[in-house]
Amino acid sequence: MKTKLYDIAHSRAGDKGNTLTLSLIPYKPEYYPILCSQVTVASVKQHLNDIVSGEIIRYELPNLPALHFVCKQALLGGVTTSLAMDTHGKSLSFALLEMEIEVNI
Amino acid sequence: MKHKIRIGCGAGFSGDRLEPALILAERGELDYLVLECLAERTIALAQKRKLQDATKGYDLLLERRMHSLLPLIRKNNIRLITNMGAANPIAAAETICQIARQLHLDIIVAAVTGDDILPLLSGNENSIETGESLHTSGKLISANAYLGADALLPALATDAHIIITGRVADPSLFVAPLVHSFGWSLDDTERIGQATVIGHLMECAGQLTGGYFADPGKKDIPDFANLGHPFVDVWENGTAIFSKVQGTGGTISLATAKEQLLYEVMDPSQYFTPDVIADFTGVHLTQTETNQIQVVGGKGQQKPETLKVSVGYAAGFIGEGEISYAGNNALQRAQLAGETIRQRLSSSFSDIRIDYIGSTSVHRTSFGHHPDPYEIRLRVAAKASTSIQAALVGEEVEALYTNGPAGGGGARKYIHDVVGIVSTLIPRTQVQSTISLYQS
């Protein structure tokens, strides 16, 4: 069954210069392995193709549990000089949560 | 030596609400109140104010916050730690003393300086972001090294009621009172790592209690309008319990804490501060009661040999204009307006941004949602080297009233004087912090 990440996880966006950070936190810890297997660097890169032009790094935090994505060249130059509406990219957590994955629950 | 101390965070950015800090000071039973009010660009803007008037350059809300807070922190014997000194901690300290005299309060203020290292820079240092020398970005306005907890400790060792600083790493505002209270060694990477986790969770204030979190129907937050800010109880072994004042709005839960723990983190195993390279990968969160979580397991490696320096530069101007379209064919009329503007401005600007607010303006795409919007606001922005050139953007958008598609309304135009930020590194041995005491 196709499910949006929005239905099973939450996220907060942060910024450092031109780099966007996106946490991805399952509402239930049992969803964490599904996120690990399906929300990969490659699938996020494809999903955020219109937003992130640089490298994406994924960190796994089984202690929380949560995933954390660090996306380079994602903020049109960064908060201080960008021409974008949302210069910090604060709204972009909900861009990640638009991604669909295959879940059997 | 104290067994446990309580620190509240009453502001997470320069424009934050005032009321939560007053509630913390009044009813929070705090030992320390921290106000974190300095974003990357705030200090460069403050430096510009200081250049125009040597008695200014501190936080614009300093007077308002202090008028309300000083009586409370004296009454309840709370020490206040804040970076509201911005570009001028000395003038801020003098201003606080003046306010205290008006209120007939005895106050000692310690100002921490030494973060302003603009005179030390030649401009030939490399920018971390661009890889090129700093001066290629533009005329340098400010350069402030991120001081650490060590810069605050001499101030905490005095009788000062208030410690006011310029640029200090945000978590260090919390690390310093913990080190001071428990006598931890600054080389104890485990304690300082845990203290940095505590500071990182606290530094954005309302972002731990349900702010920047709420999503109706999915992540509901009770009594949101009265969102309270957090406090933390820390024991000598580093164990921390986060909570908020009874009766305030908001929530502290595992979910809010997880979001804040990872906020703006570039590598959870190596979070660089002047005090330590903190490691969040062993952090363990437990919900102990409603609106109460325990945090243990922060660790770290030895602090870096260099300090990060935030450098502000003059980045020219941005001109901006907006106009709305509504009803049938609104998006198509907005798009006709946008393309028309692009043609009219193309000879004057190399980089023009056209956004359709209500459709694709913040995500730059819409992930398959394509409902026909009832109304759309066109926004045009472009960079310029002078304010006169920047003004052309808004003027051209406004001219859509009589030279654009049908039904354009609500035109607005703006000019922004842009301060850019880049950063560089400096050996910590080159940065000397100093404290000065002021008394009301």
Keywords:
heterodimer; A: 105 residues; alpha+beta; Alpha-Beta Plaits; five-stranded antiparallel sheet; two-stranded antiparallel ribbon; 21% helix; 30% strand; B: 440 residues; ten-stranded mixed sheet; 11 helices; DUF1446 domain-containing protein (chain B); AtuA_N (chain B); AtuA-like ferredoxin-fold domain-containing protein (chain A); AtuA-like_ferredoxin_dom (chain A)
Give the structural class of chain A. alpha+beta
State mean pLDDT of chain B (0 to 100 scale). 96
User: What are the low-pLDDT stretches of chain A, counting only 5+ consecutive residues below 50?
Assistant: none
Which of globular, elongated, flat, extended, rod-shaped describes the shape of chain B? globular
Write the CATH architecture name of chain A. 2-Layer Sandwich
Q: Helix tally of chain B? A: 11
Q: How would you write the strand order of the largest sheet of chain B?
A: 11-12-8-7-1-2-3-6-4-18
Molecular shape of chain A:
elongated
**Helical coverage of chain A, percent range:** 10-25%
CATH topology of chain A: Alpha-Beta Plaits
CATH top level label of chain A: Alpha Beta
Please give the alpha-carbon distance between the first and last residues of chain B. 28 Å
Radius of gyration of chain B: 24 Å
Poorly predicted residue ranges of chain B: none
The quaternary organization reads as heterodimer
Distance between the termini of chain A: 8 Å
Number of β-strand runs of chain B: 18
What does the average pLDDT of chain A come to?
Answer: 95
Name the helicity range of chain B.
25-40%
InterPro entries (chain A): AtuA-like_ferredoxin_dom
Organism (chain A): Xanthocytophaga flava
Pfam family, one (chain A): AtuA_ferredoxin
Protein name (chain A): AtuA-like ferredoxin-fold domain-containing protein
Written overview of the protein:
The complex is a heterodimer of chains A (105) and B (440). With 105 residues, chain A is an alpha+beta fold. Chain A has a single domain, classed as Alpha-Beta Plaits (2-Layer Sandwich), CATH 3.30.70. Chain A is built from four helices and seven strands, in the order βαβββααββαβ. In chain A, strands 2, 3, 4, 5 and 6 form a five-stranded antiparallel beta sheet that branches. In chain A, a hairpin with a 4-residue loop joins strand 5 and strand 6. The longest helix of chain A is centred in the middle third of the chain and has 7 residues, at 32-38. In chain B, 51% of the residues are buried. Chain B has helices spanning 19-27, 42-52, 62-75, 89-102, 149-156, 172-182, 189-202, 254-261, 330-345, 387-398, 400-403; strands at 4-11, 32-35, 79-82, 108-113, 140-145, 162-165, 230-235, 240-244, 271-272, 277-279, 284-289, 292-296, 299-301, 306-326, 352-357, 375-384, 409-427, 434-439. The longest helix of chain B is centred in the C-terminal third of the chain and has 16 residues, at 330-345. Chain B contains eleven helices and 18 strands. Chain B is of the alpha+beta class and 440 residues long. The mean pLDDT of chain B is 96. Chain B is globular and about 75 Å long. Chain B has a ten-stranded mixed beta sheet with strand order 11-12-8-7-1-2-3-6-4-18, sandwiched between helices. Chain B: This is DUF1446 domain-containing protein.
